[in-house]
Design a protein that fits this description.
Elements lengths: L1 E5 L5 E5 L11 E3 L16 E3 L2 H10 L7 E3 H11 L9 H9 L20 H8 L47 H16 L3 H23 L1 E2 L2 H12 L10 H14 L8 H10 L9 H4 L7 H17 L1 H7 E2 L2 E2 L2 E3 L9 E3 L20 E7 L3 H10 L2 H8 L7 H9 L4 H13 L4 H13 L1 H16 L18 H7 L6 H42 L6 E5 L3 E7 L3 H19 L12 E3 L7
Helix pairs in contact: 1-6, 2-5, 3-5, 6-20, 8-11, 11-12, 13-18, 13-20, 14-15, 15-16, 16-17, 17-18, 18-20, 19-20, 20-21
This protein binds a DNA duplex through helix 10, helix 11, strand 10, helix 16 and helix 17.
Length: 599
DNA sequence: GCCGGAGGCGCC
DNA sequence: AAAGGGCGCCTCCGGC
């Protein structure tokens, strides 16, 4: 294992460690181009660093890849969550301080990029040698902190919070490599003896690498195709800040239909307009407007759809996010409490179906698009141990279509009803058609339904729940005080109502969490396995990942091979995450030139 | 003028 | 078919 900490001058401090976290070499300084898999004798060697999204992009920019890593922040988020301490700082210094029962340094404000806290070469050298300059060692960079600089250099209120590490005492404070080493040892100790947790942490570390790589590689995106779509839907590109011709036309049509001027971009005005013509609506959501019988409805709905395209994925978006026919977003693998990924910039997880035609493989390449078929109900079957639901998931003829199996099993063959019922069960729906259909499901699959009901009740009590591999949900926040108040004997009706609402929200959250987070567990293991397998296929790259779906951009001759690897990785994930379960988690790789052709 | 919340909607 | 979970991001709007 190679502990890696960036220095202020763009180079890196590294030190080889054993898997136990014992030093196995002397500290050295390397350029980023000498940190990747190909740069060391042991390609598989793990990198130990503070945070993958913080450190890895610099290596990727230098053309380096890393096979495996231990991401202290990612691991710490999971371990802290299990200890009920969501949101505490996750830096190596914080991990070490907590392990010693010392005051925990606050997380650096706006901590990304080469922050003010990045140690200088001088800081590092000083940690090994009290007076490196005098000893003829590494000189301090000009303008950097002097020798009396304390702690990790974070600019915070008051004196350094790292603890009582006195001058002259040999200590980890200020030495990033030693902090990494000690943090690693502590995390290793806390995670010991739990196989599911080990799998979760391994998958999370791999996912973090994959997320950074996805961001660097980018999704193939044909600017010309996107431009053609915009032109066809919206008309010619308007001047900066102007509205495209199609929106101008529709706006006039809307005014005409109402008989007065309305700004359709304003929900307030739109609702008022419908009220003036006799329709007392609470919101102007599309599905509400759809139910109104008035000549303005058509143009309003068309306007909403096109305005959305224009503002979310229009010409400005294209200019901002697509370079050289690649859409590059920042993927954050650990950002959602359920374990799902988030993205920053470009809305990469919300690419509208309409624009999937712009995702086109390079010449000589294909896109291998794969999604897990109805992953969440299958995951529910596995985690609940519901034999009947597992049997439906694995039924031969409906193996790839769980809802068809469900439909045959209790919904008179009505697939749509079966789907609505299952989604209602997992989201906590109680009213309307979905709520009614859930009752059918409850009678048919009492074990599975009992499982999500129990999760909901735990949430309503204020308890936490966990995914199959042990990722925990956050505890209730400050609003839980209102629940406590509303449940007291002398609570007012309003207080009781508020308590019920908050507890109900919490119950729906925990009900969904056990399924969504366990599905994320499976997907992370799937992704991690595939990522490793793909290293054996030259020029095949993961270019997209969306909860239960991924895209590999691969040379045409190896596309079939990649499809096989995707299926094998899914089967491995099923076996690892749901050992002993009869559930199946089929994926459907499709080889296409355009993403839009995958479904 | 800045900022945060609300409304709305895209994806799973 | 209904409006129940998780997100990100846009515009509008009201408060300062």
């Amino acid at each position: 294992m190679l502990a890696c900490a960036p220095l202020a001058d763009g180079r890196w401090a590294v030190r080889r460690l054993t898997d136990d976290g014992e030093p196995a070499g002397e500290p050295e300084v390397r350029p980023p181009g000498a940190l990747g898999t190909d740069a060391t004798g042991t390609p598989d060697e793990r990198r130990l660093w503070a945070s993958t999204p913080q450190e890895y992009p610099a290596l990727l920019a230098a053309g380096q890849r890393v096979a495996r890593c231990h991401d202290v922040a990612a691991v710490e988020r999971i371990l802290l969550g299990r200890a009920g301490a969501f949101g505490d700082p996750v830096t190596p210094a914080a991990v070490v301080a907590r392990s010693r029962g010392e005051p925990v340094p606050a997380a650096p404000a706006g901590s990304s990029g080469p922050a003010a806290g990045t140690p200088t070469l001088f800081d590092l050298a000083r940690a090994f040698d009290p007076d490196p300059v005098a000893a003829g060692g590494i000189p301090a960079a000009p303008g950097q902190a002097g020798p009396d600089r304390e702690g990790d250099g974070r600019s915070g209120p008051g004196p350094s919070a790292v603890g009582p590490s006195g001058a002259g005492r040999s200590d980890a404070a200020g030495d990033p490599l030693e902090l990494l080493r000690l943090a690693y040892r502590d995390q290793r100790r806390r995670a010991a003896g739990d196989g599911a947790l080990a799998l979760l942490l391994a998958a999370e570390n791999a996912a973090a690498l994959a997320a950074a790589e996805l961001g660097a590689v980018g999704l193939p995106w044909r600017r010309s195709v996107h431009l053609a779509v915009l032109e066809q839907m919206l008309g010619a590109r308007p001047a900066l800040g102007g509205r495209p011709p199609r929106l101008v036309d529709l706006s006039r049509e809307i005014d005409g239909a109402f008989g007065f001027a309305v700004n359709p971009d304003s929900a307030v005005e739109l609702r008022e307009a419908f009220r003036r013509v006799g329709f007392d609506i609470e919101t102007t959501r599309s599905w509400v407007i759809k139910g109104i019988d008035h000549p303005a409805v058509g143009p309003v709905l068309a306007y909403k759809e096109l305005a959305r395209l224009h503002s979310a994925n229009g010409w400005t978006w294209l200019d901002q996010w697509v370079r050289d026919d690649r859409f590059r977003a920042e993927y954050l693998s650990g950002a959602v409490v359920s374990g799902r990924w988030a993205t920053r910039g470009g809305g990469a997880l919300q690419i509208p179906r309409l624009l999937r035609q712009a995702v086109v493989a390079d010449d000589g390449y294909r896109l291998v698009v794969a999604d897990a078929a109805q992953l969440e109900p299958r995951v529910l079957a596995a985690i609940s141990g519901d034999a009947a639901l597992q049997a439906v998931s694995a039924a031969r003829q409906d193996r790839a279509d769980l809802y068809a199996g469900l439909a045959a099993d209790g919904f008179g063959g009505n697939r749509a009803s079966a789907k609505v019922a299952m989604l209602g069960a997992m989201y906590g729906q109680t009213t309307g058609e979905g709520g009614r259909l859930v009752r059918t499901l409850r009678a048919r699959y009492p074990v599975a339904m009992g499982y999500v009901d129990a999760a909901a009740r735990a949430g309503e009590r204020g308890d936490v729940v966990a995914s199959v591999l042990g990722r925990t949900c956050p505890p209730p926040g400050a609003s839980w005080e209102a629940v406590r108040i509303g449940r007291q004997q002398d609570a007012t009706a309003a207080e009781r109502k508020r308590a019920d609402r908050i507890a109900g929200d919490r119950g729906r959250f925990t009900r969904n969490f056990v399924v969504q987070a366990s599905a994320a567990d499976w997907a992370a293991v799937w992704l991690a396995g595939l990522r490793t397998a793909l290293t054996a296929v030259p020029d095949a790259e993961l270019v997209f990942f969306l909860h239960d779906e991924l895209i590999v951009h691969a040379p045409a001759p190896v596309a079939d091979e990649v499809a096989g690897l995707i299926e094998r990785a899914a089967e491995d994930a099923r076996r690892l995450v749901f050992p002993g379960s009869a559930v199946v988690t089929p994926v459907r790789p499709v080889i296409v030139d355009r993403y839009a052709d995958a479904k």
